[in-house]
Specification:
alpha+beta; 4-stranded antiparallel beta sheet; 11 helices; binds flavin-adenine dinucleotide
Length: 323
């Protein structure tokens, strides 16, 4: 690893001041489970001069209810989210998604802020510098996306355009379906970004000097059914090949409202609006689930090696809609 300055921030203001002082040449870290790998592999053209540890800031790891719903501090560990009674009670799909991340070690180190901001795992993008040189690509601002002509079995089937790396945060998929917001702070002040707008093709839309401080999840409507499922090649320590989150408001057997989000199929959490339109207002039966699954993937454009993802996604959507 190349040397860098390391700071233990004691407050968000101190972290912001350090980010400003280093003018784009500093990175914040929380659990370090993603960032340290990125730095060790030296995949990025620009190496940070300073790393600012947020874990030393007190009070950013709470999980608590308020009048509007639940607030989760950016430093809350994934393990704490998976186990929190309040999360299990009101947002069972979020608890499931947090529990599905990596391994116990990763969930005990990794934070929700770091999970939402983690870098992609595209194997061209993450190819380590020490194994023959980093691979320049569109995401690094230096060339084409190699998945287009290369081995793209884990890449996007929806909305790739110039970069086909996928968003692999499991909690992000569920939080999008729950219509959560990400509260941040930057020198210009605070803002709340809906999860639905938190990513673009190249990752989180944060400014280089912006810090996530909290996730806010609105209270669920009565009679809400929540689902999360994830297909992966290994049962543990593996990222999703495809994941699905569904939040369904059901009354007397009729689906009043639905939010269905697919993960690992697009550069951002993919809201399957066409599938939602199919199920909204009708019974949730096998036929509707099948129609919704077809609608969810109707815009998919597979590349040479990833058409299998479409069939897996349809199956997960069907299962998520089975009451
Ligand atoms: C083997 C392995 C398996 C994994 N499997 C899964 C999986 O199945 N599902 C899944 O969702 N994830 C998975 N992950 C990713 C894992 O969840 C992330 O590494 C972890 O959540 C990142 O959290 P962290 O606190 O360690 O972040 P860090 O590594 O500290 O930071 C990650 C990124 O977020 C930024 N960041 C951190 N905190 C903030 C903040 N508060 N504000 C702004 N930016 C911030 C950092 O600058 C960095 O760019 C896996 C990782 C590994 C290594």
């Amino acid at each position: 690893m190349k040397p860098f300055r390391h700071f233990d921030a004691e407050s968000v203001d101190e972290a912001l001041a350090l980010l400003t002082e280093y003018g784009g040449k500093a990175r914040v870290t929380a659990g370090g489970t993603d960032l340290l790998g990125v730095l060790k592999s030296e995949i990025l053209p620009d190496y940070p001069e300073a790393v600012i540890n947020l874990k030393t800031i007190c009070g950013l790891d709470g999980i608590e209810a308020d009048a509007g719903g639940v607030r989760i501090g950016a430093l809350a560990k994934l393990a704490a989210i998976a186990d929190a009674p309040i999360v299990k009670k009101y947002f069972p799909a979020l608890a499931l998604s947090a529990a599905s991340v990596g391994s116990p070690e990763l969930r005990n180190m990794g934070t929700i802020g770091g999970n939402l901001c983690q870098d992609t795992r595209c194997w061209y993008y993450r190819y380590p510098d020490k194994m023959g040189g980093r691979v320049p690509c569109y995401r690094k601002g230096q060339g084409p996306c190699h998945a287009i002509r290369g081995d793209n079995r884990y890449h996007a089937v929806l909305g790739g355009r110039k970069c086909y790396a996928v968003c692999l945060s499991d909690p992000a998929i569920v939080l999008t379906a729950l219509e959560a917001g990400v509260k941040t702070v930057r020198p210009a002040g605070e803002r709340t970004i809906p999860l639905a707008d938190f990513y673009d093709t190249l990752g989180p839309v944060l400014d280089p000097d912006e810090i996530v401080t909290e996730i806010r999840i609105p209270a669920p409507a009565a009679n809400t059914v929540q689902r999360f499922s994830k297909f992966r090649l290994r049962e543990s320590i593996d990222f999703a090949v495809v994941s699905v989150a569904a939040v369904l408001e059901v009354a007397e057997g009729v689906c009043r409202d639905a939010r269905i989000v697919l993960g690992a199929v697009a550069p951002v959490p993919y809201r399957a609006v066409a599938a939602e339109d199919v199920v909204r207002g009708g019974p949730l039966d096998e036929r509707q689930a099948g129609l919704a699954a077809e609608a969810a993937l109707k815009d998919a454009k597979p590349m040479s090696g990833n058409a299998y993802k479409i069939e897996i996604a349809k199956t997960l959507v069907k299962r998520a809609l089975r009451l």
